[in-house]
Write a structure and sequence with these properties.
Two copies of one chain form a homodimer. Chain A is an alpha+beta fold. Helices cover 27% and strands 26% of the residues of chain A. Chain A has 15 helices and 31 strands. In chain A, a hairpin with a 2-residue loop joins strand 27 and strand 28. Chain A is globular and about 100 Å long.
Chain lengths: 560, 560
């Protein structure tokens, strides 16, 4: 131990780092080879036996069942309840309707918008939203509705308990507290040690100043000691620091450390910091930091589309259209990789440079194919294109890369131009309203949130058309649920809520091979495709209802 | 506005919820059909024109380039800096070595463990860790090392800015503050309104009590008004509340609302709550809540393995072994679905009930195949098995399902028994040490963290053997990087850090088809497989180095 002049920043202590996570082997032995073969053999065998018996790792046992909440957590909850259940209940108030009505009541009602226009064509000109009671639709056709409800509640309960983190709990800072402490931003990697920043005490002079620290998933210590401060419980879950000198105690508090001792890859420990008369709580986030997924696409001035983008598509019964897509792509991007997921009954070879063709079981489906294709992409970005799109001079992938490189967007949609000249961007906003036990309400509306600064033709939305470019790792993190076989588009964007920042640019345009076909001019393959794709199978709507009711836990869906 | 008796809980206001997110259409018209065809036509065309011109959504423009930090953020940073740069710098301290040495210095050194035993077989008995300087290895063989370094720094910078959230900033609560406020746990869905819980003021009586609220991504208002309290700035980003009566002000503070006005799917707003002399900061998390991904596997007493689990595998040049695997699975689980990713040059049909066979481009590779297989799974859990495993009576998948159902584990590995009788669980712990600009250090060691309570044969680790069951959605969220063609195992677990809670049970055992073959007894296919798989291609090690150096941003890797 040595005294030294205090450094500028309290967190800089000049010591070598020694990883202290793994148990160290500390036995040493000396011997002479020739004279002691016998003992050597015995020792060797003993060591061998020890080696097999010794498992690197502590022998501690930890409960990893979903945690209900430590005693400290319970104390925190009671304290907060005390604060929010309020005092001053005798003072009257006047409701401010236009604000109060915006508050969620956690009991969303499955209603469509009210009709505001009474014109014969109002439905066409100003499409109303309709409401679909998903709960009813799913449970009605279910052999055991009560069982299904119960099962969903169980699964949801399990999901909530697994996703629970003490870092999400409500904590309220007490007024007039003598304690200074960090309320946000403290984190530690599993089993490592940090200095807790910002601890302090500010109270009037007294004979002895005392503070207490308590944790559950780790222990406290001090990285340095200060004269005239008494520290009890170093290396334990409960530590007490006291001193007759307030300034000395505060100096000591600058060196308090926290060491995570109970391993968990991602959780938080609630720490209690208190005096006799006051207490405070704060979280220390514990967990492995996410390892980044950076893509090496070479550092060049212009965007190298082949190095940055892979085009992904799925094909079924439309090899002619697929060929047209590929040919059109090659006109503008001769070396970009195209990944094709193919679930035809009798797959034909699709070959060519930079073409990757994947054969799936027959009819495995739309979302399965999309998930497959994206799972094979090795570039930073993936561009989704339907197999009946045609690239034109307006299909500037560089523009999509540009906005993804320069903003926080994870995915950007373009526009699909029909033969009529009409371009669709299919922008939608999505919101979820809490609904309590019965499930939430999903609201989908045409439209967008706002224009993007610097990109006047682009907006932010929650869902876009099926021509988009996205960060590969983020798109696959959301995933395309392989249970959706034939229909499905918005389901991906519902799954993406809270994960993807989504944009839409109207000036990056791909053409749609003509859909306008007179019935007698359709080719055989066209007819087969239409029959397969557009036949309203009750199995399909059942799957859709199941996805919305069970998987996503909605009770209602309103949409245009 | 009406007065009413104050409810028990301040957050319960009995009003109907009216979604206020979308601009409402408020025009109404009356007309008579027969008499006014002319005006009708004109009106109709006007409406049509209006309809096309009117885009649902605000016309506001928002900057979505990675945010540097709002003015409020800067104020917060300066305040915190003031607090942590410390006072009492004149008070001396004594370093406590054994604690101080555990603190990370953000400059990890690429060193292997020191040798602690000097025995002839010490390397075998007590394997030392070796250090691999990934930076050096990658940059040495790179045509443009400076360019690569610069490009990685750019990509990482971009990644950091995109992942940044104000909710991660350090905030310190001031001691002796008259303010009461929530420090954690306040969240609002995009563009919605909440009551901010826990706001309060506790100061000595004075002629006027004043508090200020400031935000950046939203506005304040009050859901109810209280007599004798003056509120200025309702509906704005800065609101002031004042009253000569402290109790009235506190009652008013119970009704303060926050409305998010700048859309973002996942961010936080830093709110400043202050008096003249004191200030406090807290975060309101803004974002879509994640929609759950619940699986409907029927509510039954026993685990229905076919409904809950899909077996995924990849095959290459070993159809005979694959057949053995399938036959052995069918002995115990006749109807469980088996998904097979196949990148043989000349794929053979693999058929049978509940078999899904996927053909990939030749030699696309190991991780691509794993990613593909998992992307096709529609059940809650996916079991990974190599194509040369054999199921036995000890391969009880029910046990794996049990631990996944009852704990917070996302993935659990089993044991693979070799022909010799030796079972391997391949348990490893992984940690990452910060390294500054040059990249971090990755440490991989044999071993585990702790035993799991209630499951005496199971432990928690960071990596396990290639026989594991995991939650399908979580496994795919991590993903198997398709760039890793031939080798790779721990890379998945490195990508999983911070995402998956991983366990390993030694009593769920699968057998490994014998690998012990005398060279002259190997079949042609065996020889071809070994040649393909085990040939040390420099391309492979280059890809590995690139993954570790560039993608994961490591400079060093130490391992057993």
């Amino acid at each position: 131990m040595r005294t030294q002049t205090p450094p500028q920043n309290q967190t800089q202590l000049s010591h070598e780092v020694v990883g202290n996570i793994y148990p160290k082997k500390t036995a040493t032995m000396r011997f002479t080879y020739k004279k002691c073969l016998g003992p050597l053999l015995v020792s060797g065998l003993t060591l061998l036996a020890l080696f097999y018996a010794w498992s690197p790792g502590t022998s501690s046992v930890v409960d990893v069942r979903p945690r209900q909440g430590s005693p400290l957590q319970k104390l925190l909850n009671e304290t907060i309840l005390g604060i929010v259940s309020g005092y001053h209940n005798d003072i009257a108030y006047h409701i401010k309707e236009d604000v109060a009505c915006r508050l969620a009541l956690n009991t969303c009602v499955c209603l469509a918008d009210k009709e505001t226009l009474h014109l014969p064509f109002s439905n066409l000109l100003f499409p109303r939203a309709w409401a679909h009671n998903v709960s009813q639709a799913f449970l009605e056709s279910h052999p055991d509705p009560e069982g299904a409800k119960r099962h969903r509640a169980q699964e949801y309960n399990s999901f909530q308990r697994r996703s629970y983190s003490p870092a999400d709990e409500l904590i309220i800072a007490e007024a007039g507290s003598p304690l200074q402490y960090p309320t946000q931003g403290v984190k530690v990697r599993p089993l490592k040690t940090i200095i807790i920043p910002g601890l302090g005490l500010k109270e009037e002079t007294r004979s002895n100043h005392v503070v207490y620290l308590t944790a559950t998933l780790g222990t406290f210590d001090v990285a340095a000691t200060v004269d005239r401060v008494d520290v009890k419980g170093e290396g334990e879950k409960h530590m007490t620091l006291s001193s007759p000198l307030l300034s000395a105690l505060n100096r000591q508090l600058q060196f308090v450390t926290y060491t995570n001792t109970v391993f968990h890859p991602k959780t938080a420990d609630t720490v209690r910091f208190a005096t006799e008369a006051h207490q405070s709580f704060f979280s220390i986030k514990i967990g492995h930091a996410t390892v980044p997924k950076l893509y090496n696409s070479g550092s060049q001035k212009e965007y190298n589309i082949s190095a940055l983008v892979t085009i992904a598509t799925k094909t079924f019964l439309r090899y002619d259209k697929l060929k047209d897509l590929i040919d059109s792509v090659r006109q503008y991007y001769p070396t970009v990789t195209i990944v094709i997921a193919d679930d035809n009954k009798h797959p034909q070879p699709v070959t060519g440079p930079h073409i990757e063709h994947y054969i799936m079981p027959f009819g495995k489906g739309w979302f399965a194919g999309r998930n497959l294709a994206v799972s094979q992409v090795t570039t930073k970005y993936v561009l989704w294109a339907d197999d009946d799109f045609i690239f034109t001079a307006n299909t500037k992938l560089e523009r999509m890369v540009d906005i993804l490189e320069r903003t926080t967007l994870d995915l950007v949609g373009g526009a699909v131009r029909e033969v009529t000249g009409y371009s669709a961007t299919y922008r939608h906003t999505i919101s979820v309203e809490e609904g309590g036990e019965e499930g939430n309400c999903l609201h989908i509306r045409n439209g967008y949130h706002h224009v993007i600064e610097g990109f006047p033709n682009c907006v932010v939305a929650d869902a876009v058309i099926n021509f988009f470019m996205g960060r590969t790792d983020k798109v696959l993190q959301v995933g395309f649920d392989p249970r959706l076989s034939r229909r499905g588009h918005l389901e991906f964007f519902v799954d993406a809520l809270g994960s993807l920042h989504i944009g839409s640019c109207s000036d990056i345009i791909v053409s749609h091979a003509s859909k306008i076909k007179l019935p007698w001019t359709k080719t055989e393959s066209q007819k087969a495709y239409d029959k397969f794709r557009y036949s309203l199978s009750s199995a399909d709507s059942n799957i859709s209802n199941e996805i919305f009711y069970f998987k996503d836990r909605f009770k209602c869906m309103t949409s245009h």
